[in-house]
Amino acid sequence: MTDGVAGHAPPARHTSGLPTGDLLDMVTVTVDLPTPAVALAVGAHPDDIEFGAGATLARWAAEGCLVHHLVLTDGSKGSWDPGADLAALVAARSDECRDAAVRLARGDPAAAGRVQFLGEVDGELANGTGQRREVARAIRTVRPDVLLGHDPWRRYRLHPDHRAAGFLTLDALVAARDPHFLPELALPPHRPAALLLWEADLVNHVEPCPADAAAAKVAALLCHHSQHESTMGVSDRSSGSESGPEVFAARIAWQLAQHGAVADLDAGEAFHLLDQL
Fold first, then answer.
1. Distance between CA 105 and CA 65 in Å, rounded?
2. Residue at 4 is within a domain
3. What is the pTM of this model?
4. Each residue's pLDDT tens digit in the chain (277 positions)?
5. Helix and strand tally (H, E) in the chain?
6. Domain CATH code at residue 69
7. Range of the domain at 270
8. Coil, strand or helix: which one is 151?
């Protein structure tokens, strides 16, 4: 493992198994990158960033990191109601993303970074030339020390947007870092120090998750009210119901504990780290 963001290697641990997926070979698992000054998280849909890295982003924000969000699709498929007003759903989900970004910044709008929307149709995301140009534009504009996104190599993934988002992020990173790509942008190239991919089968890095960061992750996810019934299984009718917010928070806490256990931590978020970009 090469040097971390601040020029030194994070502490290393070893594991031969994961709580989800199989790890066939022994790998080194690093822990706790130095807090970046700027981070950019790229998600396929509204709420994907919070599910994938919400606690990490909240902890970094509390430590002074400026966290930017780029959401690639409009979220227009995110309803189980066949008669849903899709224009209203898209507008609501955009507002939910902005609210969630503020929650990850511990409620301080001034501390939250930019929330950008590529606006591709939900379920139809493509890794095309135009899409790569716009994601590369975002990378060159905000100039993150750490880029975060979906792991496109996760096995048995059903949703095409998650696969496309992962490869789009990787391909845009290459275009953003190299000076002879996309001269029409008239923006200097930028090479992040590290790439963190969430939903990874092959985990080699875990970010610690203190209790306040876990709470911020849950609060940010619950900002996505349009997804309470479908994605989250949360009933808004009663906080004490079997499907209430407390049950959802407990499920998130269980997942964070499973991820943390990979690196002998009480709680964490697991990633595949690439730091030779």
1. 9
2. no
3. 0.88
4. 333 344 444 455 544 444 444 444 457 899 999 999 999 999 999 999 999 999 999 999 999 999 999 999 999 999 988 999 999 999 999 999 999 999 999 888 888 999 999 999 999 999 999 999 999 999 999 999 999 999 999 998 889 999 999 999 999 999 999 999 999 999 999 999 999 999 998 999 999 999 999 999 999 999 998 888 888 888 655 444 457 888 889 999 999 999 999 999 999 999 999 999 9
5. 6, 9
6. 3.40.50.10320
7. 12-274
8. coil
